């Protein structure tokens, strides 16, 4: 099939590469000239394990192309994916200007029957708006499909190539056949393509993210209660997760959820409901808990030290989660801003995100190129992202480097009893 993907962000680039790898002819379009030039030269603008190799392979085998020319890409395509950004609008709702601008351009460029697919995370009713925007500028036949993406950063290729399910909102038999054909290499009996109407597909995406965010905030609340009553959240988590109806994933308490999806999508869902006169109180509480959680480590530190003025702290982990260089809504921002705001100095290490972090913090903090460098003479260490390299450090070496051996473990990566045995003052989340 000939495919055009509009928008080479996380979702567009991964989807385009995976569709090319399954034998399609894919052209990825972006207005960002620098990005397109980088991609044409075989460089990948984001860090995602395995992506660079897969892009190179498909470029070499001439199935994957990058261009700024939307018209040319769309004219030749049978299926066009809209994968542009949907940033947060003024009242928390998703801003659709880029999606609708792309729709209009697609309408103007189409030369034959085309399946136009909303891949961006878009509020309920967007497929109808996209259809209207295209209809206004063309008489050519087309269908609009909603196909939200569920991939996780850091595991994007695996998630795309072996999805739990593919959700497709479609109201035409012709488009349904095209989509079934396109996804047939990625699906098996146990991970089906679920066909439904476009509104249900659009809502499924938000509901999934809101449910996962709810689990995290719920566990963060339980962790707070554990600390009050003298229980250990790690036992409680295992006890809960072993119930098959509940399951283990997404029950890890921590420094709050971040990233480009959960915070934005929870807000957008609340805003959509409000547009329809419905107040989603549960999700508003989920957000409140998350705000509190992002501040928790600094609250604990302020209590431990009294004043943070003039103190120096190490931070391990800046990206919003391991295996990505993405800093969007990263809990490290709240932690570091909190520390700096209280007059402390920060030296931070992250295995892959110093370049993205520098855009956020500039020279207001120092960057360590190896983890131990972030410990020299510090009053304490904050572990904010659970990168594997932080899991089994040389604790004795840490102690000799640090001015005082205090660890604020925002991801519960260390065993509290062992840390105390080793002579650390240890603060976890919801642990005894
Ligand atoms: C998420 C969804 O998982 C994905 O389906 C959707 O398409 C996009 O949003 P992503 O943002 O890449 O993916 O990251 P994810 O791994 O889901 O983590 C989100 C945040 O929740 C991270 O900040 C992570 O640290 C946090 N988290 C996750 C927890 O605090 N506890 C957990 O148990 C799991």
TrEMBL record:
- Which residue positions are annotated as catalytic? 261 (nucleophile)
Write down the superkingdom of origin. Answer: Bacteria
Its annotated pathway? Nucleotide-sugar biosynthesis; UDP-alpha-D-glucuronate biosynthesis; UDP-alpha-D-glucuronate from UDP-alpha-D-glucose: step 1/1
Enzyme Commission number(s): 1.1.1.22
Q: Which InterPro entries match?
A: 6-PGluconate_DH-like_C_sf, NAD(P)-bd_dom_sf, UDP-Glc/GDP-Man, UDP-Glc/GDP-Man_DH_C, UDP-Glc/GDP-Man_DH_C_sf, UDP-Glc/GDP-Man_DH_dimer, UDP-Glc/GDP-Man_DH_N, UDPglc_DH_bac
Biological process terms in GO annotation:
polysaccharide biosynthetic process; UDP-glucuronate biosynthetic process
What UniProt keywords are attached to this protein's entry? Answer: NAD, Oxidoreductase
Single GO term (MF): UDP-glucose 6-dehydrogenase activity
Which residues does the record give as substrate binding sites?
150-153, 205, 250-254, 258, 321
Q: Membrane-spanning regions, if any?
A: none
Known catalysed reaction(s)? Answer: UDP-alpha-D-glucose + 2 NAD(+) + H2O = UDP-alpha-D-glucuronate + 2 NADH + 3 H(+)
* Domain named UDP-glucose/GDP-mannose dehydrogenase C-terminal: residues: 314-416
Any idea which positions bind NAD(+)?
30, 35, 86, 121, 153, 264, 328
What family does the Swiss-Prot or TrEMBL record give for this protein? Belongs to the UDP-glucose/GDP-mannose dehydrogenase family.
* Protein task: Catalyzes the conversion of UDP-glucose into UDP-glucuronate, one of the precursors of teichuronic acid.
Recorded protein name is UDP-glucose 6-dehydrogenase
* Originating species: Myxococcus xanthus (strain DK1622)
